[in-house]
Amino acid sequence: xxxxxxxxxxAKMKELMGFYYMMAKAGxxxxxxxxxxxxxxxxxxxxxxxxxxxxxxxxxxxxxGTMKISDxxxxxxxxxxxxxxxxxYARTDIGSALSGKGPLMGSASPKPDFLVCCNNICGTVTKxxxxxxxxxxxxxxxxxxxxxxxxxxxxxxxxYMEAQLRNMIDIVGEITxxxxxxxxxxxxxxxxxxxxxxxxxxxxxxxxxxxPMNSFDTFIHxxxxxxxxxxxxxxxxxxxxxxxxxxxIEQGIGTLEKEEYRLGWDNLPVWYKIKFLxxxxxxxxxxLVVSTYTRSFCxxxxxxxxxNPLRAMSADYLAGYINHGIDFRERELYQMVQNxxxxxxxxxxxxxxxxxxxxQYELARTMEEKYDVPVLLIEADQNDTRMWSDEQIGNRIDAxxxxxxxxxxxxxA
Amino acid sequence: MSEYFxxxxxxxxxxxxxxxxxxxxxxxxxxxxxxxGRLVQSAEDVKREVLLQTGVSDDCVKAIITTGxxxxxxxxxxxxxxxxxxxxxxxxxxxxxxRFVIDIGxxxxxxxxxxxxxxxxxxxxxxKCAAGTGRxxxxxxxxxxxxxxxxxxxxxxxxxxSKISSTCTVFAESEVISxxxxxxxxxSVVSGLCRAIAERVQxxxxxVGVVPPVMMxxxxxxxxxxxxxxxxxxxxxxxxxxxxxxxxxxGASIIGLELIKRSKGSLDKIIQxx
Lengths: 413, 274
Prior knowledge:
The complex is a heterodimer of chains A (413) and B (274). Chain A is of the alpha/beta class. Chain A contains 18 helices and 9 strands. In chain A, helix 4 (70-79) packs across helix 5 (88-99), helix 7 (155-176) packs across helix 14 (309-316) and helix 12 (274-283) packs parallel to helix 18. The longest helix of chain A has 23 residues, at 182-204. The longest helix of chain B is centred in the last third of the chain and has 23 residues, at 186-208.
């Protein structure tokens, strides 16, 4: 295999993320700097506008996963009686909070002054953040995002979100002792909106054949949109990355010597097996070019009212993939198959993430029977290595690729 | 005498299997031996055995296709292919009308849907757990102090079938001991064990969605107790070939033959064709 051309921007991202975590660590000792822990689907724009540094336990847990230290941190939570059946991010985070161990220069995240939990990503976060509230004894702002069963989001749910976000703006002002300035908030929303659009454009560039980067790259380049959405730094970073990808497209640089097959990924990555999976799929000349997971951070409501940014934001925070039922997910998956010219889908049935894994067997059957798309289900866990077996998963991937290759050859013939 | 020969090697977790075909696809010999942790040696042994049985020399073997868990560590192979593809191919060659294969081997069980042209469709494999596999039966035979081969007939003859609630190999072992202590007869326990496997595999099969006719392959298909219970649970007739254990190796050898035919005999072209 020829030498892979690395993505230059990665170094800049490491710099950006390193600076962010350094500032957060420094903020821990500054009495005037407030820090909030927030769920990945939480309305972070209000925090940025209020001068609060957001920390994402899920992002920190994923770092622990890629650094392969999540098992020992999870064990701390398990020793305290948290079940192994509990989400491994929650166990990593709680274990980290209890022990002080973590991936940020060997230590845990800076302690929070308050917590923001939005249940648009799962129900587990509700109890998880209540647990954090008990550990740190700090205020918890809870945003309840109703699950959307239909394809079209319900207007009364948007009303409900809007009322809660308005309330949150006031509470954040009370906690920091300085009301969130409306103009600053509007400016933050605009920055967030630009970053989200860039992130979507970047992922859409992978529709190109060969794809200028793959999903294993997007998993890594996801960090700024999650943590720094609503800041100038986030936009600058994605502008750089986008320019580099356009350059790669122009020069015909892909990620494999020969990109024969294109696949989509569903659910969170298996953080501690990124390299294994990337190499195994590469052996079959197969590139993962799109994932529902990384696209989750650029969902915007379909008929959002752009003349009313708070209203649009309220709708956006309901609009994510996993806040929706099966019909919505089927539509999204099939659009991915078409737009990215996929030969198959890989679904990670993730023991930790029930909200995401729910319905996957039904979706897999639908994709196979209704749309004739081969689907591989991999049973694993995002952060718990004990749920993984190289041999078994490798075998499934090999068999699946034999099937995909056979099908493609027949279709060509 | 055939111009050339092809060997399919299926190196599983419990046994190694070899099948030798002539250039017209006629099966001339097969061999089965326990792997016993020595994958490479057992592969060499079964290969030697089929050559010895037929008097074919090494030089006349044009392709060796390997499959099973040990497929990649075997040297001098033409190509390795997963057992999913090989079992599907083997079953299809035995009976082209087959639409579904249930393969239960030493450490995994598989449910494979076949397209009408014999290609692999959807498939599922067991979890990272030995429940519902041949290893489960092996451990239980040892616990009961009986031979693995006796289990099938014993289960079929038993009028009673003990309820085994656990499918975990480790916990089922202690459950079996406690059932015996309570005075349950061994045949009744054996029948219960066969049913436990059948129920476990049924869940796997249902995830794919069974389409008849169904063939059962792999070593466990030799156990009539499991076959009967599985057939009852699935409400499907199960076709068991005469030598269910060698279907993977057979499929591998057929794939080898197809590669040669497609490449008009040239080995370089075979590799290009893959």
